[in-house]
Amino acid sequence: MALPKYADPLERAWHYIYLVICALIFLFLIAPILVVMPLSFNAEPYFTFTEKMLKLDPDGYSTRWYDLLLTFGMQEPDAVRDSSWWADAWNNAHWIQATKNSVIIGFFSTILATTLGTIAALGLSRSEMPARRAIMAILISPMIVPIIITATGLFFFYSWIGIQNWGIPYLGVVLAHATLGIPFVIITVTATLVGFDHSLTRAAANMGANPTRTFFKVQMPLILPGVISGALFAFVTSFDEVVVVLFVGGLDEQTIPRQMWNGIREQISPAILSVATILVIISIALLTTVELLRRRSEKLRGVTPR
Amino acid sequence: MTDSTANGEMLTTADGRPLKAALAKAEAHAKRRAFLLVLPLLAFILITFVAPIGQMLFKSVNNEGFTVHEDLGTGVRTPIMTNIAAWFDENPLGTDPGEDAYEALAKDLVVLRELKAPGQAGTRINYELSGSRSMFTKAARKAKKLKPPYKEAILDLDEDWGSPKLWQVMRGASSSFTSNFYLAAADRQRDENAKVVMVNENRQVYVKLFMRTLNLSLLITFLTFVLAYPIAHLLATLPLRHSNLLMILVLLPFWTSLLVRTTSWMVLLQSQGVVNDALVASGILGDENRLQMMYNRTGTVIAMTHILLPFMVLPLYSVMRPINPSYVRAARSLGATSWTAFRRIYFPQTVPGIGAGALLVFILSVGYYITPALVGGADGQLISNLIAFHMQKSLNWSLAAALAALLLGGILILYWLYDRLVGIDNLKLG
Question: Is residue A154 situated within a structural domain?
Fold first, then answer.
């Protein structure tokens, strides 16, 4: 935004004040996320910068909290770090267990949400779809309804149908997380389908392709970027979800957010900050992926950036 | 469309069917196909989302604590308190409970004792009249030894059995269906004549909490608007190359775990935290009067404003981006000051974005749970936290359901409004 030539001094002054205000707001947005990174390397169990840290003294920094993440819950954390130590960590360390659970739950709920969501988005984006508005409102509602209400409802429903006796581990949490991820899949995939040229499917049908073949050979490659970003949204939703897990998850179904939640409520230690740092790095990676996918999708669909 | 041509011949398809019928059939077929694609997901959502919430809301008007005992092991359901319920049916409200009423009560207490269910029945009464649970457990323990005249025998156990309020509450509870939990959620109760009155002033918590939730949500919506407007404007007017880079600063918080962002604010706002340390080090604050910014309302407001800010920036940005800058330039060339041009030309064009963002942020903040639970302390709690409290701690599930129903009702109205004004299709995620 360039300042016009005819601006008077007052406007000039305001322009620079405005830029400073914007910079401060951006700082407000980003600082809380960045501040945990250096603090997670604090050598002391404090949540603030020690004098040594400010002087950039190497003694002020350590990786002890990352080490604690690895060893917390191990049977023999102090043994020599050979292969049996690593096996111990893999099998017993609480945070590693939580990561495993989070990945399993996230993976299956993402598959479920993405499959059902993409098929439904194909239907929803057709002009013939009956009662489109009402159905769309129902499908998006898991994003709007307060999470505590969803969790409470599922708690009663699952105990009523006795889902924990079905013998399928994680089933309740996976179904719930799929439900919570579906709105994101619907929104991203229908957005991709808005610019979709339906004469392509007609052309495919004209050349003798059946609907399944048309979908996989013509539609799917074009909407794939949208589907993948929807899937990433669904995965992040599950990976970050704590309330439903607290209400319906079994005792052995500890996930990363649940472990964090317990850590924050009981005795918050800088180990939480090291988890937070790792999660921030993951979200930076995911954001980059989604951004690249969005550009690719725009290129594929021939939409020029606004 | 007409069915016939000018010379009266029916228009038909190649295989001889009337054109209109063939079209209708094709359209119906297309409709069915579109619907069948959506059906699996719709069924999934109805089963795993709508049905559970419906079932939970049903609990707000239905409580079988005083009417049916269900054995947890076998699942056998036995009606309880049947004699007293029969007495209530025969005698209208206001009848003084006589010997027959007490005899029915004594018989029911024996049944309770056999089923080991006095706690359950007592708890149900206790929701509306505190202190009555122990009366039931105590009386049921001695139920078998009770001899006629029952009235005297029971009043001997505890004088409070004669209280008209207790009998009124039992009358209400003897039916599984009740609206009393909604009354409780609105800080009201029934007195001994079943008239609706306010509860004692020191026990009026729910209306206050609803008001607080509303106020804080409005405040948060306003703050996100104030913070989002300048940066959305900046993003919308910068060339795309630069604005895409700055957009990352908005999207990164959006993608970062909610717990991580809440933790960061805990770290920043603690009394020994970064913000206070910086203020003390720069000499603005003395070491002894560090600001208390966490475990109170301030913490909730700051953290939630930060967390919900992207939901305001994104709709504003998508409305501001297509605004043609020549409108403002035209206004300036006609002699408007930059303030007038902004106020009369630019701002009115951004109102749809403000509406969309404000509604979305408000809807999301009214139901917020995690952040207030972690940084809210006592006076930064919202209505969701109270629902969780009644679910997990006080175990008054019907009251939790009634509170949830009220909250959900409000949110659905706002959601409907959002759909009307903005359209769900226009929801954008970065």
Answer: yes
CA distance A40 to B263: 12
Does the structure show a pLDDT above 50 at B422? yes
User: In this model, does residue A306 exceed pLDDT 50?
Assistant: no
- Distance of alpha carbon B368 from its chain centroid, rounded? 9
Choose the mutation target among A11, A17, A25, A177 for the interface with B, i.e. most B CBs under 10 Å.
A25
Give the range of the structural domain holding residue A275, as residue numbers without chain letter. Answer: 95-300
Confidence tier at A164 by pLDDT (50, 70, 90): confident
Q: B17, B177, B68, B398: which is closest to A156 by C-alpha?
A: B398
Q: Which domains does chain B have, with CATH numbers?
A: 1-58 (no CATH), 68-203 (no CATH), 206-426 (1.10.3720.10)
Give the pLDDT mean for B392-406: 91
Beta bridge partners of B190: B196
B18-34 pLDDT, tens digit each:
888 888 998 898 899 88
Picking from B385, B380, B114, B123, the residue whose alpha carbon sits closest to that of residue B265 is B380
Closest alpha carbon within chain A to B265: A32
Q: Please state, as a whole number, how many other Cβ atoms lie within 10 Å of the Cβ of residue A302.
A: 8
Q: Which of A140, A154, A158 sits opposite B424 (nearest CB)?
A: A140
**For B119-164, how does the pLDDT look when each residue is reduced to its tens digit (9 = 90+)?**
888 888 888 888 888 888 888 888 888 888 888 888 888 888 888 8
Please give the Cα distance from B258 to A240 (Å, whole number).
7
Amino acid at the residue A191: A
A249, pLDDT greater than 70: yes
Q: Is B303 exposed, middle or buried (0-12, 13-18, 19+ CB in 10 A)?
A: buried
Q: How many domains does chain A have?
A: 1
Interface predicted TM-score (ipTM): 0.88
Does B35 touch chain A if contact means CB atoms closer than 8 Å?
yes
Query: CB A146 to CB B41 under 8 A?
Result: no
> Alpha-carbon distance B221 to B212, whole Å?
14
Considering only CB atoms, B264 lies closest to which of A32, A233, A240, namely A32
Q: What is the CATH number of the domain that holds A248?
A: 1.10.3720.10
User: Which pLDDT value is given to residue A110?
Assistant: 96
Q: Do the Cβ atoms of B427 and A32 come within 8 Å?
A: no
Q: How many CB atoms lie within 10 A of CB A296?
A: 13
- Whether residue A189 lies inside any domain: the answer is yes
